[in-house]
Amino acid sequence: xxxxxxxxxxxxxxxxxxxxxxxxxxxxxxxxxxxxxxxxxxxxxxxxxxxxxxxxxxxxxxxxxxxxxxxxxxxxxxxxxxxxxxxxxxxxxxxxxxxxxxxxxxxxxxxxxx
Amino acid sequence: xxxxxxxxxxxxxxxxxxxxxxxxxxxxxxxxxxxxxxxxxxxxxxxxxxxxxxxxxxxxxxxxxxxxxxxxxxxxxxxxxxxxxxxxxxxxxxxxxxxxxxxxxxxxxxxxxx
Lengths: 114, 114
Description:
The complex is a heterodimer. By secondary structure, chain A is mostly beta strands. Chain A has strands at about 5, 10-15, 20-25, 30-40, 40-50, 55, 65-70, 75-80, 85-95, 105, 110-114. In chain A, the strands form two sheets. In chain A, strands 2, 4, 5, 6, 9, 10 and 11 form a seven-stranded mixed beta sheet that branches. The N and C termini of chain A lie far apart (about 35 Å). Chain B is mostly beta strands. Chain B contains no helices and nine strands. In chain B, strand 5 (about 55) and strand 6 form a beta hairpin. The mean pLDDT of chain B is about 90. The interface of A and B includes residues 45, 48, 92 and 105 of A.
């Protein structure tokens, strides 16, 4: 089975800390995505990447950065965490040659910033 | 991508068919209809997609109206494990860098009752 793995299911961080959320996929997929999900707001796209070392801003990139040094790994970075970044973070992958809208999601990382 | 409209919530009895509607009246010719679901505390899961013909797989059936302005996802024999939020998404299967960038709305909360 294809798999997208997020490094941590639950994290608690303090305001101002630097936070790394890691995502690894074993599908050899070119495309990877980071979303956040909040009650009443649904899933919102933060950043995505179509290839190694490539990144594109999504709808809400402010306060975040990403890194894609290897094809299988896509990291989301909060340079200085703030309480409004408390959320569920979801990583997803898809193949460029596959059905465009078929994304494979990880289980999610629930981040609490105190 | 075209905007979609779904009911906020629906109920279904276990063993009966669940019919989830979606309105996408502004859909354009190159846009596909995708359905995902999200079970509590998990990442979204792809269900099915279609362009203009009805589609069926092991999970569900997708009925798209002839004018393509609406569609219905059918779970033929709903079980308690089908309780989830169901998302209808319209996306263009175009080439280049638009691949896989999905916009999730609020979805429909389906509750399957014993």
